Amino acid sequence: xxxxxxxxxxxxxxxxxxxxxxxxxxxxxxxxxxxxxxxxxxxxxxxxxxxxxxxxxxxxxxxxxxxxxxxxxxxxxxxxxxxxxxxxxxxxxxxxxxxxxxxxxxxxxxxxxxxxxxxxxxxxxxxxxxxxxxxxxxxxxxxxxxxxxxxxxxxxxxxxxxxxxxxxxxxxxxxxxxxxxxxxxxxxxxxxxxxxxxxxxxxxxxxxxxxxxxxxxxxxxxxxxxxxxxxxxxxxxxxxxxxxxxxxxxxxxxxxxxxxxxxxxxxxxxxxxxxxxxxxxxxxxxxxxxxxxxxxxxxxxxxxxxxxxxxxxxxxxxxxxxxxxxxxxxxxxxxxxxxxxxxxxxxxxxxxxxxxxxxxxxxxxxxxxxxxxxxxxxxxxxxxxxxxxxxxxxxxxxxxxxxxxxxxxxxxxxxxxxxxxxxxxxxxxxxxxxxxxxxxxxxxxxxxxxxxxxxxxxxxxxxxxxxxxxxxxxxxxxxx
Length: 480
Known about the structure:
Elements: E1 15-16, H1 61-66, E2 77-78, E3 85-93, E4 96-97, E5 100-101, H2 104-120, E6 126-131, H3 134-146, E7 154-158, E8 174-177, E9 183-187, H4 201-208, E10 213-216, E11 227-229, E12 234-237, H5 238-251, H6 255-269, H7 277-290, E13 294-297, E14 312-315, E15 319-324, H8 325-333, H9 337-351, H10 359-367, H11 370-385, E16 389-396, E17 408-409, E18 414-419, E19 425-433, H12 437-449, E20 453-458, H13 460-463, E21 473-479
Parallel strand pairs: 1-7, 3-6, 6-7, 9-10, 12-13, 15-16, 19-20
Antiparallel strand pairs: 2-8, 3-21, 4-5, 8-9, 11-12, 14-15, 16-17, 18-19
Helix pairs in contact: 2-3, 5-7, 6-7
């Protein structure tokens, strides 16, 4: 893919996005409700060998709505997780996690995972990596060169972030297919911002790849990790129903926006606005904007985790893998003392945890409450009642904000399922591994039972920051 530039061509070792590519001006990007609203403006000087992309105008989502952005009918068909070929994968080399610098072991772990992806995904798959700073750009350049990766497959976007960016690209946007079958990035209102300038991601990607459009969607308040999709249905966590309801109620403080909301409700429900409008509205909005029927999970209990992609995986259109702490705890209890010691050692080594604590004991303690298990079981039951076959898979969530233990999630994966040019079925899962052999092998066998070729990815150093491969990647072009 050729990137237009007003500067001399980038060095041949790596394709870089043009620093003077036209930045989008007809939409807005919101800041977090919890961060300083001041935003650095104007392009920054590029750091060779990669070049920066100019950043467009950035505003909060509510201001965008006030300025006349449409509330509804601007979405598209959300990409399925369980089908298709990833043609273009977006990644993010951040440098912070909230108010702390990104650990070096996490930085290095990401590079190892990306090198594995570039060598195991289709040679036709393109990668765009947004780098927060010059260190990230240099690291990616080195990875591509040392790994003998075709530089034409990789675009580096230098963000030159002043305040910092995280590694969690998924939650900053919602890629969909528009009416012309092209990719569009919906810029929604996130519920949290681990990097103060994560809101730059979609404008940077559009500036680097003008064929991909980006548009603010002021009516949505949902993180990318809290929505899953197969070809039949979109599954949304109940937290996002509540958050989007709150967002719509904020917008409704403007009388003109309230008129739009009530008219949308009439069209979508066939009913007049009344007491039930706010109850039904979020689901109707998601169905309209994602163009698939919506199933809400964790309706009557807490979500099993802060995002449902940590605990659920759609396998085709009729089956889900659902996390199960009891399955994981039972397997860990069967370890011999020698196996337990070795597992603690390998998990600590992979995650870069030097505390010397018993990680297995910490994980068991964090996941053994009956209430937590009941949250997983209730979600599995809701999916089963909706007609899905359910298979359980080990899952152990860590301790939030501590960085003291990896999250052992085998649901937070990335899948491809398509027919290649020879008519052969390609069915791959890019599956996190954590140095916990008993659970890593068990999860691998479950995916193999479902017909997947397993591509293992070492993610302990990433998952201790509360996510894995799905959280840290997003297909911005998918063939399905």
